[in-house]
Amino acid sequence: MTSPASLLPPLDERGTLWERLRERAAANPTTMRMLGWLVPALITLLAAALRLVNLSHPHEIMFDETYYVKDSWSLWNLGYEAKWGDGADAQLPTGDDSAMEKTGSFVVHPPLGKWLIALGMAAFGPGSSFGWRITAAILGTLTVLLVYLVALLLTRSRTIAALSSGLLAIDGLGIVLSRIALLDGILTFFILLGVLFVLLDRRRTMPLLAAVGAEDDEDALPRMYGPILWARPWLIAAGVAFGAASAVKWSGLYALAVYGLYVVVTDALARRRAGIALWPTDAAFRQGLASFVLAVGPALVTYFVSWTGWLVTAGGYDRQVDANPLVGLWKYHEAILKFHTGLVSPHPYASPAWQWPLLLRPTAIWVDSKPSGCGTDHCIAVVTSIPNPLIWYASMAAAIYLLYRFVRGLIDRNPVGPALTFPLVGLIATYVPWLLVGNRTIFQFYTIAMMPFLVIGLAVALRELAGRRSAPLHRRQAGQRTVTVFLIAVIVLSVFYYPLWTGMSVPYEFWLIHNWIPGWI
Fold first, then answer.
1. What is the DSSP code string of 477-492?
2. pLDDT for residue 7 is more than 50
3. Dist CA 314 CA 310 (whole Å)
4. CB 176 within 8 A of CB 383
5. Which of 195, 227, 231, 203 minimizes the C-alpha distance to 213?
6. In the 8-state DSSP scheme, what is residue 230?
């Protein structure tokens, strides 16, 4: 009788167990096609389960849901965000929206995210906490799938794509921000969607520019200028996505600016490889202007359209400040900008951006010191934005490693590939701007926009740790064992922290052992 062990390829000089399994799968095209959709589908289903199960708990308004739930419902009913009377937070979970007034309320974030939250409320009723949160849960789940697609386009490795998306699927920050009606998870979805479109544009345009160089005669003078590419549908789509991100929160503008520069730089490098003599100015002033129109134009239109409700109604905040609604909208934006630049309001969970890599002060989003359904005398239920600590700190180490590889490549004049640099571009767009905001009150859960790039960078670093086929067999075996142990520890930690990400009632002592740093309490 054949033993199960005999079905596995041997660990010999021809490769490690992982490599032999991969080769055996690659030899069967049907198996590869099945894995091509089955793996991301299973990871996405896992992400959905972790985000959707018991989504309505707690059935009360948590943290900044006090703003976005009420704003969303007034948007749906009035076309603009309105003021609410006293007691609204207690009344709304019962389905009572009588505290909603008709007077416009001063809000400091654009409307798109709240319109999307309102879709769930319209479907399930204003008193349904499931309805408040379902949009964030769906988009948070789809973000996991987007991470898979982005990583696959970037690295052409299904292993790295599966690792990246799997890490985000089970990470606490991704889970928590998908289970609460805040804007940051929605913002992350649109930023990553824009990133996916940028990569698709890159995949489409790089061969076109390479073909220009291939057509040139080696004996002829080099071309002074390359073609201006106007047929770039994916760049237009990226502009729409980044415009939608900006219509959720203004921080989406950082992504639009950074990835706009990324497009110009990659165009310039492609033109240099194609032998274009004036490649820097060609990319910046000829193709760059065209790319600006193709990306920024749709972004502006998308952003402007998100304000339609305010424009076509009469009751929004400052709607009557000027006879010309466009002038009124401009003045409203001036007031919003003044608010953002001057927001210095003490908050017990405020965390400046320099603290984020160290994870010094995550946000306690919801706490119930006397929950029901616990078998001991002293229980607690919390929802905290603590990510999986192992994923977080390993991602920080991976980002430093990628930065080191990038700098060393510049020094050695041997630039590294996009798989090692692209996650850094994402962190420039989603983290670096927050270092420049001074004393403004900000929170650690803003790092959800960083998480897709952190997990992709971590997966790339883990692939390096596992060893390449050119490395000695003993090096690959040791590396792959290390990665396996790391991933097992990550899964165990996610199971350990899951009750604190979903508001389960737990013994007080169980909660205490999760708080590894004083600032986590």
1. HHHHHHHHHHHHHHHH
2. no
3. 7
4. yes
5. 227
6. -
Q: Which amino acid type is present at position 143?
A: T
| Radius of gyration in angstroms for the set of CA atoms belonging to the chain, rounded to a whole number | 25
Quick check: 349 and 364 in contact, CB under 8 A? yes
> Ramachandran region of residue 164, left (φ > 0), alpha (ψ -120 to 50) or beta?
alpha
User: Which residues are CB-neighbours of 352 under 8 A, at least 6 positions away?
Assistant: 442
DSSP 376: S
Residue closest to 26 by CA, chosen among 15, 41, 12, 42: 15
Q: Which residue type, as a one-letter code, is found at position 60?
A: E
* Count of residues making up the chain: 521
Cα gap 165→234, rounded to integer Å: 23
Q: Is the pTM of this model over 0.70?
A: yes
Element (H, E) at 82: strand 82-84
> Cis omega (within 30 of 0) on the bond before 58?
yes
Q: How confident is the model at residue 344 (pLDDT cuts 50, 70, 90)?
A: confident
DSSP-based three-state secondary structure for 44: helix
pLDDT bracket for residue 12 (50, 70, 90): very low
| Positive or negative torsion for Cα 438, 443, 448, 451 | positive
Strand partners, 379: 507
With 0-12 / 13-18 / 19 or more C-beta atoms within 10 angstroms meaning exposed / middle / buried, residue 411 is: exposed
Report the C-alpha dihedral over residues 249, 251, 257, 263, rounded to 10 degrees: -80
The pair of structure tokens assigned to 446 is 């803003």
Q: What is the arithmetic mean of pLDDT over 202-214?
A: 83
Which of 164-178, 323-337, 371-385 reaches the highest mean pLDDT? Answer: 164-178
Report the alpha-carbon distance of residue 212 to residue 337 in Å, rounded: 45
Angle ∠(155,173,169) on CA atoms, nearest 5: 45
User: Under a CB-based contact definition with an 8 Å cutoff, are residues 239 and 246 in contact?
Assistant: no
∠ CA 232-212-280, nearest 5°, is 75
> Contact at 8 Å (CB) between 469 and 19?
yes
